[in-house]
Design brief:
Blueprint lengths: L8 H12 L2 H5 L6 E3 L7 H9 L4 E7 H4 L9 H12 L3 E7 L16 H18 L4 H10 L10 E4 L14 H18 L4 E4 L2 E2 L10 H9 L10 E5 L5 H17 L6 E7 L13 H17 L1 H4 L1 E6 L30 H10 L3
Parallel strand pairs: 1-2, 1-9, 2-3, 3-4, 4-5, 6-7, 7-8, 8-9
Length: 358
C-alpha cells in the first residue's frame, strides 16, 4: 500500500471484513465502472441525460490555468458547476489535473520542473484536494445550496496529467520530470485528502512524433525513478486501435511491466477508448461498427476485469464536435450522440446495455 494510504489501514481492514461477507457483491461491476470523456464542459441538460443513461463516471479536466489564472487567485465557479451537476445526476467525477498556470509557463503542456514551480503545483493540488475530497469545502458549504438533498460524490481518484508520454500534450516527455510531479502530488494530497488515490495520466499506447515514448517503455522508466512506485496507486492507458485485438495487446504489454516491477496488484484504468462513426480517419469505422466495437471492447473489459485489474473504462466521447475542435482525424465523430444531441447513435444503445440505463 502506498504511503498516503497507511493511515487508512485500520478502516480498510474493517471494510474488508464486510466485503468478504458477500462474495457476489465483491464480484459485481462497480457503479462507476463505465464512464465517459466529454469534450469540453457538457451542459446541465447533457449531464442530466447522462444520468438517465446511468453513466457511472465522467473524466473532468481540472485545468490549472483556469482554476488559478493568477498566483493565489482561484476561480472555482465553472468547476463547481460541472462537478456539482455530475454528482447530482449520480455520476462520479474523475478529475485529471493538467496544464501549466500562466504564472509558471505560457505553454499549457509544460510540466512544472523547478523547485518553485513544483511548490506552486503542490499548492494547487492541496487546494483541489481540500475542496473536492472527502468532507471538502465544496461538498459541505457550496453543493448543498446548489443541489439541495442531492448526495455528494467527492473525488475518489485523481489522475495526474494527460498523455505524459507524448510531446503533443507534455513537455518535456521525461519519466524523471513526471516523477517529480507525482511526488509533489502525493505530498499535497497526503496533507489534505489522503483517501484520494493517485492514477497516472492516461498514456497513449504508441504515440507518434519526435520524442514520443511507448506507454510500456515510459512506465518501465518511471519505475526506475527513486520513490516513484510509492507515489501512485494505479496506471492508465489510452489503447486506441483499429480493432479490439490491438487493445488487448497494449493492455498486456502494460501489465507485463507491472508484473516485472512487482506491482501486479496496481489497477489499470482505461481512461480513453473510442472509434468514430464516420469513415474518415484512422479509427473512423462507420456508425454500425462503432456500436459493435464499443460492445466488444466493453464486454472484454467486464470479462477480464479481474485478470487485467481494470479499475474502469471511459468512452471518448459524449457528443460529436466540429472538426476544428478535435485533436485527430476521427475524433469529431467519436460521440455517442451527434452534435445536435438528437437521436442517439447505435453506440449509445450498446453503452446503456452495460449501464442498465436508457
Amino acid at each position: 500500500m502506498r504511503r498516503r494510504m497507511k493511515a487508512f489501514a485500520a478502516i480498510t481492514a474493517v471494510m474488508t471484513v464486510g466485503a468478504l461477507a458477500s462474495a457476489s457483491t465483491a464480484l459485481a461491476v462497480p457503479a462507476d465502472f463505465y464512464g465517459l470523456v466529454p469534450q469540453g464542459t457538457p451542459s446541465a441538460s447533457d449531464v442530466k441525460r447522462m444520468g438517465q443513461g446511468k453513466v457511472g463516471s465522467a473524466r473532468v479536466l481540472v485545468n490549472w490555468a483556469a482554476v488559478e489564472p493568477a498566483d493565489d487567485q482561484f476561480d472555482f465557479d465553472a468547476l463547481d458547476s460541472y462537478v456539482g451537476n455530475l454528482a447530482a445526476s449520480g455520476i462520479q467525477p474523475f478529475p485529471y489535473l493538467y496544464g501549466s498556470a500562466p504564472f509558471v509557463s505560457s505553454k499549457v503542456g509544460d510540466l512544472p520542473q523547478s523547485a518553485n514551480d513544483l511548490a506552486e503545483w503542490e499548492e494547487f493540488v492541496r487546494t483541489i484536494g481540500a475542496r473536492y475530497g472527502q468532507g471538502g469545502t465544496y461538498w459541505s458549504t457550496v453543493y448543498p445550496g446548489q443541489h439541495p438533498g442531492a448526495n455528494p460524490k467527492p473525488f475518489k481518484d485523481v489522475q495526474v496529467w494527460n498523455e505524459q508520454n507524448a510531446p503533443k500534450y507534455t513537455d518535456p516527455v521525461s519519466p524523471s520530470a513526471y516523477a517529480n510531479v507525482l511526488k509533489s502530488t502525493n505530498t499535497a494530497l497526503a496533507a489534505v485528502a489522503p483517501q484520494i488515490r493517485i492514477v497516472l495520466g492516461g498514456m497513449f499506447g504508441k504515440p507518434t512524433g519526435g520524442g514520443s515514448v511507448k506507454a510500456w517503455s515510459f512506465l518501465k522508466k518511471l519505475y526506475g525513478e527513486p520513490g516513484a512506485k510509492g507515489d501512485f496507486e494505479a496506471v492508465s492507458l489510452h489503447p486506441y486501435s483499429p480493432d479490439v485485438e490491438g487493445v488487448v495487446k497494449q493492455i498486456e504489454k502494460l501489465r507485463k511491466v507491472l508484473k516485472q516491477k512487482k506491482d501486479k496488484g496496481a489497477k489499470l484504468w482505461i481512461t480513453e477508448i473510442g472509434w468514430g462513426s464516420d469513415n474518415a480517419g484512422r479509427l473512423g469505422v462507420g456508425s454500425k461498427k462503432q456500436g459493435k466495437l464499443l460492445k466488444e471492447s466493453f464486454k472484454l473489459f467486464k470479462q477480464k476485469r479481474g485478470k487485467y485489474k481494470i479499475g474502469g473504462v471511459l468512452w471518448y466521447t459524449w457528443r460529436d464536435t466540429n472538426n476544428a475542435d478535435t485533436d485527430c482525424d476521427w475524433c469529431s465523430s467519436a460521440g455517442l450522440f451527434p452534435r445536435n444531441g438528437a437521436s442517439p447513435k447505435p453506440a449509445w444503445n450498446s453503452f446503456v446495455k452495460f449501464t442498465k440505463g436508457s
